[in-house]
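Archive transcription. Copying these from loose printouts into the bound notebook so they stop getting lost. Printout 1 of 2:
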Amino acid sequence: MQQAGKRWFTSESSHAVDRIRQGATVEDKQLALNCYMDKKINVGRYSTPQHNAVILQQKLEQLHLQLCPQDAEQVMACGNFYIQHMVALYTQKALAWAWTKGSKSKAAKVAFLADRQSNLNDALDMVMRHMCQSLHHHQGPCARVGALHEPRSKIEAALAFPKPAQWKTELDSFMQRAYEQAVSLPPGHTCKLTAQKLNNAESCMVSKIADGYFYTKIVICWNDGANQGHIQDKLKALLPLLWNRGVVQEVQASAEVCQYNMKALRQQKSRAGD
């Protein structure tokens, strides 16, 4: 049994033991342990969460034998927590690894770092700063909320550990403040001109005019959520200028279709260089 134990105890494990022993606070020891366990989660073609859980359990049992009772207790408690959430951790690391290889989404990396913050406020600050990168000038209230919602959803989907109720409350409040701080502009020249066309158009042309108007409002450099909100802002400005109830319904339907197909429409507009 001792021979087997030696095979499991690598120089990396020995380094982790030293860092845990030398940790001045519980947080320092936790940081060292998290770093060790994250390295031991192997994401690969022939690896699975279940296999990782077994390996990590064996590693922690060896680690725990080298530590004082208090540190050993922390190792097993934290280790069991990791093992309990291994499926989510495995997925998170796989996504974060894709990020390092050039994936366009940094959400998994942010989720990875937020999960490992000992202070909830620090984790929230990290997430909010990432969300704010999607904000741009000239975004109305709905556009701002949509811009923030998309990265938030991606981050929360990549989180491995459950968060307290304060997490949702703080992010909801943050998005509400962003909505309230936005400036709602009055209908512009293009909006008024489009309303005039819609009010005088034959019924068979209403959808075509509305589709064209909303398509011109798609901003390529904004994310899909921001553009969906932008269409909602433009719709709110346009509707009071329309006279006919039937036209209003068709314009609303056109806006909904544009929002639903936003990803494809934004890609199409990007390829066209509009």
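Printout 2 of 2:
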Amino acid sequence: MSAATTTPAATPQQRREDNIALAVKFLSDAKVQQAPLAKRVSFLESKGLAADEIEDALARVAGKAPATSSSATTAAAAVAPPPPPVPAYVAAASAAAQQGFPPAA
């Protein structure tokens, strides 16, 4: 008779990486990429993935996606960049207007 071999239990970090790897595989599928982002996230949540695991998987897929991919555009649109800084002359005019000074000619 052969001795039964057992595999050691996976650590939480290994399980997390396994979850993320499976999510990346799922999110990389062409048909899945056509689905709305909310639907993809909802599916992953239903499979027990934590929000941080889903975020990591989405980031990894966005990093690997070609620039022409619609999923890359969708992911980029989901997180809008911060607005550009306000030029000093606009900030100064706004501050002067708030203090009741007439606009400079």
